[in-house]
Amino acid sequence: MTKSTRKRSDPLQPKVIKTKRDHQLALARVEELFTAKPDTPEGDELELWLLLVEKYEEAAFPVELPSPIEAIRFRMDQANLKQSDLVPFLGSKSKVSEVLSGKRDLSLTMISNLHEHLDIPAEVLLREPGASLPDGDFLELGKQFPLAEMVKRGWLDGVVDSLTDAKAQIEDVLAKFSAPVGDPTKQPVFNRQNARCGNATDGAALVAWQIRVMSLAKRNETLSYRNGTVDEDFMREVVRLSFFDNGPLLAREFLSKNGIHLIVEGHLPKTYLDGAAMRLGDNERLVALTLRHDRLDNFWFVLLHELAHIALHVDTEVCEAVFDNLDERGADKIEREADELAGEALIPASEWRTAKFTKKTPAS
C-alpha cells in the first residue's frame, strides 16, 4: 500500500524490513513523518522507522572496504609519513615498495604491525568485513589443521599455491582462511561450557571443517531466521519433500526461505562427522552435512536429526553448535532427544502403533 492509497487512519506499522517492497513502503512512511517533532508519538515512530531503514540498508547495500594499499596510503597522508617510515612495520625498503606497488601481499606480521601502530582496521587489511586477527591459542590450533587435505580440496585457493607455502606461511594462511568467520572457538556463546555439544571427535580438523562450512554459508545470501521456527510440524514439511526426485534441492530451498543454510561438505579424516547444527550470527541458522554414508535415506535422517538439534538445543540456548557422529549417538542425552524428535517427524509413533509392527518373538 503506497502513500497515495493508504488512509491516514491506517498507517503502516513499524516492522523489520525484509524485502525491497518493505523498504519502499518504509521510505514512504518516513516521508510522511519527516516533519514530526521529537518526543511526540509521530516523532518516536519516525525514529523507529529510521533505525529499521538503516539496519536494512546496511545489510542490503554494504559499503565496500577500501583495499589495504588504499588504507595504508590514506594513513600515510593523514600522519604525513614517508615510505621509509613504514620500514619498522613492513621489514625493509624493498618490502615497503613491493607492498605499496601491489607486488607483495601483506604477511600476518605486517598486518599486525600496521593494525597496532597505524590503527588500520584488521578487517581492511585482511580484506574481509568483520575479520579480526587470530590470537596465540588459535595460531597453535591452526598449526594442527590438516593442511595437506585442505590444499587438496581447494580450501586454500587464493590463499597459498602449494602445501609447502601453506606450511611456511601458516600464520597468514590461518588469518585469511578464518577471516570470513573468525575463530569459532572464541565467539560469544550462551555459556562457555555449553558452547559445543555432540560426540564427534573434537580436534583441530573439526574446527577447520567448521570454519569451512560457516564460510561457505557466509557466501550465500543473508537469511532471516525467527527463533522457534523449527518444530515438529516444520520438520514434517521437510519430510514431505523426500517423496520428490529432487527432494534434497527442494529441502535446501525450503530451509533457505526460513532462514537456515544447508551446506554439504565432506568430513575431514579422523573427524567421523555426519553433520552439524549451529547458530550463524544473530539471525541465521546453519545445518551442515558430510554425506559420510552416501545414501539417500541417511541424508534425510541426518538432516532431520540436525533440524531437531536446532529446535531443541540451538534455539533454546543449550548449545551454540552441535557436531554429530551418528554411529555413536545413543550415549548422549541431547542425541537421544534429537533422535526421538527426528524419528517422530519421519514416522509418528501413532502410525507405528496403527501398523502393528512388532519384533517377532521366537517360538518357545
Number of structural domains: 4
* Order of secondary-structure elements: HHHHHHHHHHHEHHHEEEHEHH
Poorly predicted tracts of residues = 1-8, 189-194
Large-scale geometry: flat
Rg to the nearest angstrom? 25 Å
Compute the separation of the termini in Å: 75 Å
Number of strands: 5
Q: Given the structure, what is the number of helices? A: 17
What is the mean pLDDT? 85
Major β-sheet profile: 5 strands, mixed
Question: Which helices and strands appear, and what pairs or packs with what?
Answer:
Layout: H1 20-33, H2 41-60, H3 68-79, H4 87-90, H5 93-100, H6 108-118, H7 122-125, H8 136-142, H9 147-152, H10 163-168, H11 170-178, E1 196-198, H12 204-219, H13 232-240, H14 247-257, E2 260-264, E3 275-280, E4 284-289, H15 296-314, E5 321-324, H16 333-346, H17 349-355
Task: Kindly describe this structure.
There is one protein chain. With 364 residues, this protein is of the alpha/beta class. It has four domains: 1-63, no CATH class; 65-132, 434 Repressor (Amino-terminal Domain) (Orthogonal Bundle); 134-179, no CATH class; 192-351, no CATH class. The chain has helices spanning 20-33, 41-60, 68-79, 87-90, 93-100, 108-118, 122-125, 136-142, 147-152, 163-168, 170-178, 204-219, 232-240, 247-257, 296-314, 333-346, 349-355, and strands at 196-198, 260-264, 275-280, 284-289, 321-324. A five-stranded mixed sheet has the order 1-5-3-4-2. The model is unreliable at 1-8 and 189-194 (pLDDT under 50).
